[in-house]
Design brief:
InterPro entries: Aldolase_TIM, HMGL, PYR_CT. GO terms for molecular function: lyase activity. Belongs to the HMG-CoA lyase family. With 297 residues, the chain is α/β, with parallel strands linked by helices. The chain is 43% helix and 14% strand. The chain has one domain: Alpha-Beta Barrel (TIM Barrel). Strands 1-2-3-4-5-6-7-8 form an eight-stranded parallel β-barrel, surrounded by eight helices. Strand 2, helix 3 and strand 3 form a beta-alpha-beta unit. Helix 2 packs across helix 3 and helix 10 packs antiparallel against helix 11. It binds magnesium ion. Magnesium ion (MG) binds next to loops.
Length: 297
């Protein structure tokens, strides 16, 4: 069985895009997910509470969560202050974000992509100096709501730059669900050819129903690391009410059936999915959560 690495992003990327929930609920969800066998969890982000109130209690949530020694936990940071908070909280795997689309980057952080890349070079040095690894997430890699398709050569150029600056891992984010199998081939193929040993993680949204097809396409290209969010937690930032992150249960259900080893216990995952629904007080988009697995567990 080919081993795959799934990173559960519900506690951070998911909850950050839902109405704020209490710290207690976040801790319960983190603890439930830590017991599913998932190998990686994006736990929190260290951002300014005025910018993102959903993560205002990141320090408290992380301090109270039970850390499973078999799980790699990561945190997302926007800047030096966030990086210092994450390191002080004990994180050794840290993510930073830049957008491949200049327009999207300017709308998000009021800086050009190049200016953000200069900041990220400094952040990578800071994190390495503190004994942490740095992952650069390249948002809008598969398309931008303002610019449309982003030239794959531009995405590849950003990868070259961050690798030269010392990034330990790179992730491609499908920020608004514009990825299709064709785009995955166009964007991921050249980067895999150029950096065959670079740890590359893909983050797909199911906004237009293509997330699982994108994952299968990426598997064919040799990618083995994927983000997914419990229940499909986290909406689409530019299309209110639309689906965002691909649901972890759907990814695990399909891949295990195909003979891949995710290490995840689907039964425990479905329980965590029901907890996620209870926490946000609405039905989540995961089809496997609604219908159950094709063969009951
Ligand atoms: Mg997402």
């Amino acid at each position: 069985m080919t081993a795959l690495s799934i990173r559960e992003v519900g506690p951070r990327d998911g909850l950050q895009n839902e109405d704020p929930v209490p710290a207690d609920a976040k801790v319960r969800l983190l603890d439930a997910l830590s017991g599913t066998g998932v190998g990686r969890i994006e736990a929190v982000s260290f951002v300014h509470p005025k910018a993102i109130p959903q993560m205002a209690d990141a320090d408290e949530v992380w301090a109270r969560a039970k850390k499973n020694p078999l799980v790699r936990y990561s945190a997302l940071v926007p800047n030096t202050k966030g990086a210092q908070r994450a390191v002080a909280a004990g994180f050794t795997e840290i993510e930073v974000v830049v957008s491949a689309s200049d327009t999207h980057n300017r709308r998000n952080v009021n800086r050009s992509t190049d200016e953000s890349l200069d900041d990220i070079a400094g952040l990578i040095d800071l994190l390495h100096g503190a004994g942490a690894s740095a992952e650069v997430i390249i948002a809008t890699s598969f398309g931008c709501p303002f610019e449309g398709d982003v030239d794959p050569r531009r995405v590849a150029g950003i990868v070259d730059r961050v690798v030269a600056d010392g990034a330990d891992r790179v992730a491609f984010g499908d920020t608004t669900g514009m990825g299709t199998p064709r785009r995955v081939e166009d964007v991921v193929g050249p980067v895999r050819d150029r950096h065959p040993d670079l740890p590359l993680l893909l983050h797909f949204h199911n906004t237009r129903g293509t997330a699982l097809a994108n994952i299968l396409t990426a598997l064919r290209l040799g990618v083995t690391e994927f983000d997914a969010s419990i229940g499909g937690l986290g909406g689409c930032p530019y299309a209110p009410g639309a689906t965002g992150n691909v649901a972890t249960e759907e990814v695990v259900h399909m891949l295990e059936d195909m003979g891949y080893d995710t290490g995840i216990d689907l039964k425990a995952l479905l329980e965590a999915g029901r907890l996620a629904q209870e926490i946000v007080g609405r039905e989540l988009p995961s089809g496997v959560l609604k219908a159950g697995p094709r063969i009951p567990l």
